[in-house]
Design goal:
The protein is built from 17 helices and 22 strands. The protein is α/β, with parallel strands linked by helices and 504 residues long. It has a 6-stranded mixed sheet, with helices on both faces. The protein has a 6-stranded mixed sheet with strand order 16-19-20-13-21-22, with helices on both faces. The protein is globular and about 65 Å long. 41% of the residues are buried.
């Protein structure tokens, strides 16, 4: 260590309220100098809130922050940056049209009178080489893969000489190989006496990279422990406060005809092919997973299957009929259901109540009407039924959805889309950004649907999710299906290679 103190920083009795919501409740823990420290917890546990206070994004209502052993007030991010604290947010803060080096120095440019591009590039190349970063400084950010954009964010912190690096969900959209590369860089930074804090819901990765971990639940610290003393199971159970329920075993059912059939589908854009002769099928009672780094054709497959576009060549069939000949209304009547990838943009209205969100897209159902009009009583009965079946909390049907955690919001969506006769379910990143308890519940529900004969196409950026649920896995790369494998024969490493390099 390059300092005489043992702790890089610590929180002492920190409390933070947002209106009536208590995000942090008397939180106390410390992070050791030069370590890699994990912060884990369910949605709404307060983990991002506490670290954002260290970065000066908002002040605590009470309690104290100690930095390098001294009580410190961090009133804004500029204060944190001056102290050597940097944060990489889950959603990157980059300007897409600028180059890598321009993004790195943005906000801390040398004086216009001394701005020397050659010397800046030389300085940044030295930082890159010191820790194994591989990104073209002259590339435009919008042309970079997600993993490279993340490198730019970390290089921004190093350029500002940050000694404490906070990473919020740093592996959320990375392939296994990109995660391995990121961890190698973090260990290199640790050797250079940097202190690293990782906020994550991926417990396997927390166990792999951190030395200590703080576990939070409902705004409070459960405990801070050495990671080596934990397993993935014990860590999960400490987070949720109970034993995890094992997923049910469901054999794949045997059917002669697929419920969904995609044959030689291609889609072109002005810049070239987006989908290139893809073919696959989903049988009733089968879960087919689709793996791939985002931007390789997943969005276009979703748009075609949900009838948002028909400018493709090839054939798409649902229950034996050409999809182009089926109305959207008839498609839903025949049991088609869809869980969109972005619930806030595509699936819910946050200002609406649980009950109002529960009937979105279901207004036509006779069971919700009294004569010509929607029945408030029947709508509330439906909402209460979903609340009970899907363990939605708080259990108040008139509560605006904005007051629910991400996991409970997603339960509303899953309940609305599957609490009826469903022959086919298209689920796109159904557990993104939600906690372990909600993930376990949704996974269990999908397996129950499978056992009832529902065919499921699961498009997910989470390889663990695909390996847990799928019978078969397809791999998308640059608009092509480059591999198909039975899940029992798949490995995370091989899937990651296909996702990043194709079949060769």
């Amino acid at each position: 260590m390059n300092e005489s103190f043992h702790e890089a920083f610590s929180f002492c009795n920190i409390t933070k309220n947002f209106g009536s919501l208590r995000a942090n409740d008397n939180v106390s823990f410390s992070v050791l100098n030069g370590g890699i420290h994990g912060v884990v917890g369910e949605n709404g546990a307060g983990k991002s809130t506490i670290m954002k206070m260290l970065y000066g994004m908002f002040p605590p209502d009470s309690g104290e922050i100690f930095f390098k052993g001294k009580k410190t007030k961090i009133s804004m991010p500029e204060t944190a940056i001056a102290l050597g604290i940097g944060m990489v947010h889950q959603h990157f803060m980059l300007v897409p049209t600028l180059t890598v080096w321009q993004n790195i120095i943005l906000g801390k440019e040398p004086s216009l009178w001394t701005l020397n591009t050659k010397s800046i590039l030389l300085h940044l190349e030295k930082i890159k080489e010191a820790h194994g970063f591989q990104v073209d400084l002259n590339a435009t950010v919008e042309d970079l893969a997600v993993g490279q954009q993340q490198q730019v964010e970390i290089l921004k912190l190093l350029y500002r000489e940050a000694d404490i690096l906070i990473l919020d969900e740093p592996t959320a959209v990375l392939s296994p190989q990109e995660v391995t590369s990121l961890f190698a860089k973090l260990r290199s930074l640790q050797k250079a006496n940097k202190t690293i804090v990782i906020i994550s819901h991926k417990l396997k990765e927390i166990l792999a990279i951190t030395e200590r971990v703080t576990i939070m639940r409902q705004g409070r610290v459960v405990e801070t422990v050495d990671t080596a003393s934990l397993t993935e199971i014990t860590l999960a159970e400490k987070m949720i406060g109970r034993k995890r329920i094992p997923l049910p075993s469901t054999p794949t059912l045997s059917y002669s005809e697929p419920i969904f059939l995609v044959e030689k589908v291609s889609l072109k854009s002005p810049s070239g092919s987006v989908l290139n002769h893809i073919s696959f099928h989903v049988n009733p009672g089968e879960i087919v997973g689709v793996a791939g780094i985002e931007g390789n054709g997943q969005a276009e497959i979703i748009e075609i299957l949900t009838q948002q576009r028909d400018d493709y060549s090839g054939t798409v069939s649902f229950s034996g009929s050409d999809l182009k000949n089926i109305s959207t209304y008839d498609l839903k009547q025949q049991g088609f259901s869809f869980i969109p990838p972005d619930r806030h943009q595509e699936a819910v209205v946050l200002s609406f109540s649980i009950a109002e969100n529960a009937i979105l897209g279901r207004h036509h159902e006779p069971s919700l009407h009294s004569g010509f009009w929607l029945s408030n009583k029947k709508i509330e009965e439906l909402a209460n039924s979903l609340i009970e079946k899907f363990d939605i909390r708080p259990s108040e049907p008139q509560l605006p959805l904005v007051h629910l955690s991400g996991g409970n919001q997603q339960k509303v969506v899953v309940g609305r889309e599957t609490d009826r006769e469903v022959s086919f379910l298209l689920a796109a990143n159904p557990t993104r950004g939600i906690d372990i308890g909600a993930i376990d519940f949704i996974h269990s529900h999908f397996l129950k649907l499978k056992a009832q004969g529902t065919g499921i196409l699961l498009i997910s950026s989470e390889l663990d999710e695909l390996l847990t649920l799928s019978d078969r896995i397809l791999v998308l790369y640059q608009g092509k299906i480059v591999a198909e494998t039975l899940t029992k024969q798949a490995t995370e490493t091989q899937l990651g290679l296909w996702m990043t390099r194709g079949a060769n």
